[in-house]
Amino acid sequence: MCGVVGYVGSKQAADWLLDGLSTLEYRGYDSAGVQVVSQSGNLHGVKCAGRVATLRERASVANLNGTCGIGHTRWATHGAPTDRNAHPHLDCTGRIAVVHNGIIENFQDLRRELMAAGHHLRSDTDSEVVPHLIEDALAGPAAGDLARAVRNACERLEGAWALAVVCADFPNMLVCTRKGSPLVVASTEDGAYAASDVMPLANVTSTVMQLNDYDVATLSADGSVSIVDRDGVVIDHPSTITIDWDASAATLGGHPDFMAKEISEQPEAIERLLSGRLGEHGVELDELSLTRDELAAVDRVVIIACGTSYHVGLVAKCAIERWARVPVSVEYASEFNYNQEYLVTDHTMCVVITQSGETADTLAAARRMRGMGCNVFAITNVIGSTAAREADGALYIQAGPEVAVASTKAYTAQMVASYLLAMRLGFANGHMTREEVGRRFAQLETIPDLMREVLSRRWQDKQASRLFRDKHSSLFLGRNVSSTTAYEGALKLKEISYQHAEAYPAGEMKHGPIALLEPGFPVVAVVPADHVHDKTVSNIQECIARGAVVIAVATDGDERVAKLCQEVLWIPQCADELIVPVVAVLHLQLLARYVARDRGFDVDKPRNLAKSVTVE
Ligand code: F6R
């Protein structure tokens, strides 16, 4: 969702701002803009609905000279994605420019009040109130002090915000602040930078500073950054994040798109995650803030997540219940937050799964669980993300930057991370012996090679993708843990190919979705060699009897399935049923990508979607 960038220093600001916005494109957006302060003390900007590429074209013919500026990619919440609603937004004098990520919940009241006082607001956005509040503060209590004016303005706001502000009267200064929405800043020799996340900063620094809620950072042209808290007290040692990957990790590196790259990176991501994890405590998970006794006492686990990460939660439930014998509930964060009667025990542990660590619903749920006295453990990919900072403990999956909006490598790495947690719990509470942990861990270590084998069979997915040509809908089926693979496969297909796909536990098909079946209707059946194999084969037969075209995901050597189905996406033999979802899903990621490419869509930037869903 919305991306914010800012720069002040010795270089031309527009160049880096536009590059920074390109890097943030992956977050999802529908319009973009930049504003630069010229040394003569004027603001110059361009903004437009559509892509950063269009903004670049407009910027190339605009006079954007200046070494201080801000930029924005907007994901519309209040007001349509139009040029007028694109950020930056200006105050009445046209001397203050603001970009905002988040939602100002009391904007209607503020807007009414500002207009009654004679302010002229031009857009339909909630964000536009901010420059006008700053204008008032600069004209009154915070005269001559931009940082203070921003602080004063924020005192009037309710909701969430990451703001970057420039003012023509302060051509060598950029002021940033946040509450709820992500923002990091960096100090370098050639200037100071601000961005929604570390991605645009990776090629200018390896260390970024984090802002706490309500902190206000003043960035200066000499590259210095000074931060004060809500009360104006200077923060001498802000917490920092080290960017531990090379900027090239966020480039295509010869792949046709980021999704292809990230699918292919999964074996190495799992190897990194497992490296050094087997030790004295079975699985070493120092990130947990619970002692062994506290872990042993956990009598309930509540997993909270959204989207793809929710599907990880469903698989994690199987592993934790099977290996640690602890009951697990898995909740959609957006639903959990409004379930007024949620019950927890004294020893309930909460696990939030969020690759971005910034999903607003998941963060709200984690806060609620902490408020109820639960220990909260976050599984996330983004170092220093809000989920990681606010949780009692956080496990970083170390999958490296995931740029494609549709999650692939974070999905499988999060699954394996949840297996590590299940083993740690099982060992702590005595349901798993050291030997069993060792045996299971060795099974996890087979995953990278199994994945490599599936990747080498990608031609099967390409071949199967033609069965989706000219189709409007499809059904994904699976039983037990494979139903989760079906859910994830259908979600991937919907997201990037815009083709409707419905996923169901295979045995539930006859209770409704079977009515969809007609000759030629594509059904994807996840039917590995497991204890429900024969039951799923019966469901495949029910589909074929109604003329459906079945594409199976099956285990090598399954002659029965090969005879029945039109196409088979083969997976190698897996050592345990819980290894299958981590391996089989690669076929469905590849299948979705081929279908989307066949339909001519940009697989990395699907319409309407955002990588980091920072609004509830
Ligand atoms: C789908 C996808 C989304 C995210 C969801 C939660 O490919 O990526 O469904 O899983 O928006 O995001 P995180 O995991 O960042 O909380």
Write the layout of secondary structure elements.
Blueprint: E1 3-9, H1 13-24, E2 31-37, E3 43-49, H2 52-60, E4 68-74, E5 89-90, E6 96-104, H3 107-116, H4 129-139, H5 146-154, E7 159-167, E8 173-179, E9 184-188, E10 191-195, E11 207-210, E12 216-220, E13 225-228, E14 240-242, H6 258-264, H7 266-274, E15 278-279, E16 282-283, H8 292-297, E17 300-305, H9 307-324, E18 328-332, H10 333-336, E19 348-353, H11 360-371, E20 375-380, H12 386-390, E21 393-396, H13 409-428, H14 434-444, H15 447-456, H16 458-465, E22 473-478, H17 481-497, E23 500-505, E24 522-527, H18 533-545, E25 549-555, H19 559-564, E26 567-571, H20 580-598
Parallel strand pairs: 17-18, 17-19, 19-20, 20-21, 22-23, 22-24, 24-25, 25-26
Antiparallel strand pairs: 1-4, 1-10, 2-3, 2-4, 5-6, 6-7, 7-8, 8-12, 9-10, 9-11, 11-14, 12-13, 15-16
Helix pairs in contact: 1-2, 4-5, 7-13, 7-15, 9-13, 9-17, 13-14, 13-20, 15-20, 16-20, 17-20
Outline the structure in words:
The strands form 5 sheets. The protein has an 8-stranded antiparallel beta sheet, covered by helices on one side. A 6-stranded antiparallel beta sheet has the order 5-6-7-8-12-13. The model has no long low-confidence stretch (mean pLDDT 94). The longest helix has 20 residues, at 409-428. Helix content is 35%, strand content 23%. Helix 12 links the parallel strand 20 and strand 21 (393-396). With 616 residues, it is an alpha/beta fold. It is built from 20 helices and 26 strands. The site of fructose -6-phosphate has 13 residues, from helix 9. Fructose -6-phosphate binds at residues 306-309, 354-356, 359, 362, 406-407, 495, 613.
